[in-house]
Design goal:
The chain has one domain: 3-Layer(aba) Sandwich (Rossmann fold). It has a 6-stranded mixed β-sheet, sandwiched between helices. A 4-stranded antiparallel β-sheet has the order 2-1-4-5, with helices on one face. The longest helix is centred in the middle third of the chain and has 20 residues, at 119-138. It has 10 helices and 10 strands. With 258 residues, it is of the alpha/beta class. Helix 3 crosses helix 5 (119-138), helix 5 packs across helix 6 and helix 6 runs parallel beside helix 7. Helix 7 (184-199) links the parallel strand 7 and strand 8. The structure holds adenosine-5'-diphosphate and magnesium ion. Adenosine-5'-diphosphate binds at residues 13, 18, 36, 38-44.
Length: 258
């Protein structure tokens, strides 16, 4: 059973179709890769799924229900979380405070309560802090809890981005180029963390340019070009697909992994 299904999804910017009649079904518990050359529509697909953009046509079916026209906060409440292409952290506060802030969406502590700080709120706050710390531990970055987010190296910043996403108790996480700009070690660590998240039962939809990372992590790949799906299947099969090889010509990507 698909947990997330795109049906005939299209997005026009003026007369340009960034996404065109896209069908895709993501199974629960899967790591699905969405690949394609630069400008092929991957980020637009994420924006359509998470309510940052409205489709020109088509449906986004989440657990059997069309969510394409819901506001972003409702989509988050329904269990969809995302990270952004260039890690969007709250840069001026520390790592722990980042996750605490992200937790608040599920705890219902509002600013007025923060101000009054009655006993019940203080208890709730302590629980949130504990949960935030546990998430940093799970991502393997508890030791940087007190460091300013802006000062973190790529690998730690990405792990924090994922911890922020986990704080909203998602059923699926959409990751947009999580290893962009990382060295080999950071990349390997981040992909391990993503697998650990999936092992918790959370479905992953991954956009990534690093083909080695995609090949070693994803169960199924969907490749798009000019917003159209051109191939889908096992990573091995998709990477050898002639349309995919053609689409990637001229990109600085090594597709010859087999
Ligand atoms: N807000 C926007 N307004 C106009 N065109 C856009 C907008 N966002 C993306 N596009 C265009 O849509 C196409 C797909 O972009 P994008 O989804 O960012 O690709 P990818 O993430 O695969 O690199 C590109 O041609 C891009 O220029
Ligand atoms: Mg993109």
């Amino acid at each position: 059973m698909a947990i997330l299904e795109l049906r005939g999804l299209s997005k026009l910017f003026g007369r340009n179709a960034a996404v065109s009649d896209l069908d895709m079904a993501v199974e629960e518990g899967q790591i699905r890769g969405l690949i394609g050359p630069n400008g092929s529509g991957k980020t637009t697909v994420f924006n359509l799924i998470t309510g940052f953009l409205r489709p020109s046509k088509g449906q986004v079916i989440w657990q059997g229900r069309d969510i394409a026209n819901l506001p972003t906060y409702r989509i988050t409440e329904l269990g969809l979380a995302r990270t952004f292409q260039l890690t969007a952290l709250f840069k001026e506060i520390n790592a722990l405070q980042n996750v605490i802030l992200s937790c608040h969406i599920h705890t219902g502590i509002n600013l007025w309560q923060q101000f009054r700080k009655n006993r019940k709120t203080r208890r709730k706050e302590a629980a949130v802090e504990q949960r935030a710390m546990a998430l940093l531990e799970f991502m393997g970055i508890a030791d940087i809890a007190n460091e300013r987010a802006a000062d973190l190296p790529h690998g730690h910043a990405a792990a924090l981005g994922i911890a922020n996403a986990l704080a909203t108790e998602p059923k699926i996480i959409l990751l947009d180029e999580p290893v962009g700009g990382m060295n080999l070690t950071e990349t390997a660590e981040t992909m391990q963390r993503i697998k650990a998240v999936r092992d918790q039962g959370i479905t992953i939809l991954l956009v990534e340019h690093d083909m080695n990372a995609v090949m070693s992590t994803c169960d199924v790949l969907t490749c798009i070009n000019f917003g159209h799906k051109i191939a889908e299947g096992t990573p091995q099969k998709v990477c050898q697909h002639p349309e995919v090889i053609k689409a990637y010509l001229g990109e600085e990507i090594d597709l010859c992994l087999a």
